Amino acid sequence: MEIIKARSAFLSNYEVLTLLRELEAEHIARTKTAVRIKKEEDAGHTHHDPNADEVLENLRTIELEGIQYLSADYQPTRQQSDAGIQRLVNNLASYDLTKAEKLQIVNLAPTEPVELYVIVEELEDRLGGQMEDILGAVSSSLDGRGVGQQAPPPSAGDGRRFGNALAHEAEVYVEEEQDYWQQTANDVEFDDMGEGAGIEGDLDVDDD
Amino acid sequence: MFQLSIIKDTVPLHPATFGQAPEAALKHALNKKYANRVLHNVGLCVAVFDLVSAGSGRVRYGDGLLYYKVAFRMVVFRPFVGEVVIARVRSADEEGVRLTMGFFDDMYVPLAYLPQPSAFDPSERAHFWLPSSDDDTETAPADLLDSPKDARMYIDAGEVLRVRVESDMFCDDEPGPPRAGEGGVAPPPVRERRAPYSVVCSISEQGLGPVAWWKAAQVEGGEDEMMEE
Fold this sequence. Notes:
Chain A: This is DNA-directed RNA polymerase III subunit RPC9. Chain A: Keywords: DNA-directed RNA polymerase, Nucleus, Transcription. The complex is a heterodimer. Chain A has helices at 13-42, 57-70, 82-92, 99-108, 113-119, 123-127, 131-141, 159-182, 197-203, and one strand at residues 2-11. By secondary structure, chain A is mainly α. The longest helix of chain A has 30 residues, at 13-42. In chain B, strands 1, 2, 3, 4 and 5 form a five-stranded antiparallel β-sheet that branches. Chain B has a five-stranded mixed beta barrel with strand order 6-7-8-13-12. Chain B has a three-stranded antiparallel β-sheet with strand order 9-10-11.
């Protein structure tokens, strides 16, 4: 074994969650096939897939615990969507943020100034007036369903309308949150977004 | 919090897997070898992300296995120093607070990184922070225990904390290969097993610590603003 590059790129929590859910879906599909094959075998057929009945215990453990952590109710991933994150990263590009700060904004989705203070060093000096804009960009990227229901990005001089739009968004957000509480665990939606290639490109450490 | 590591390895495939697509069989073998394991100075491996390149399989003399030289990308859990992450309190003792992320348990907040002034309440088995006391007066931990109970902010087990990663450490405690010339078998030194990968976190800054603390503060702040309007 040889480590070629320990850190070739960063991944956002959302991407990891997508990957783990894909693995989970694969596993469930494989288990179903295995059950079907077993039935066929009982009926007299003798086809056998060796991988089907070899469950990787370690992979299953980290897969389930990872999904549990990444989709817990204190994580923003449940309101995030592929399109939403992509839009957020595009919006963040205009601010003077480091890659690590952008990654953390995507991962933690700060909606309150306190949270942003923790993530961005010397927030006041660097981006004093733009804080609200960043928080607005974050909350508009959280929509839960990935449907384009956000208000268009406000123009720079239109502060009041922006504030109203934000308040409206906040209400929508609260309602959705309640929806989530009512949903059963079986109802978890699974978006196959091809491992979120869009964000990865932006957060790559190197360009090759 | 997660990163991609490029790793090169030689993977043997059993003849029983020859019927499958080589890519799937290789991923399966790699996941079997790496998933949920700590790579020294790399981090905790989660799962194979994709294969970068793979040579053609070669058979060696002696067994019927196909050996593939593979380069692949691994999803690795390795929060960088200074990163803010969310974790739950697993337990607390006199030495500090132990955190868990579900899939990763070896995260600690030592006493020095707790918000000051704070103390450990042995009857509740939890640390608490006294936000109301003045910063100028140095209070001994013993005095803090005399404080009124309702002024204390407890960090209870199971609570969701926002923490900053301060440092991480890898320990390789696996015994090496036995040395020749030592004669008999040397008794293995009995030592406490250390975690192969542990992370030290801090909650001593503004905005860190139980998420609920700051949520509550925000609500109050929001009300104040409403009043001003």
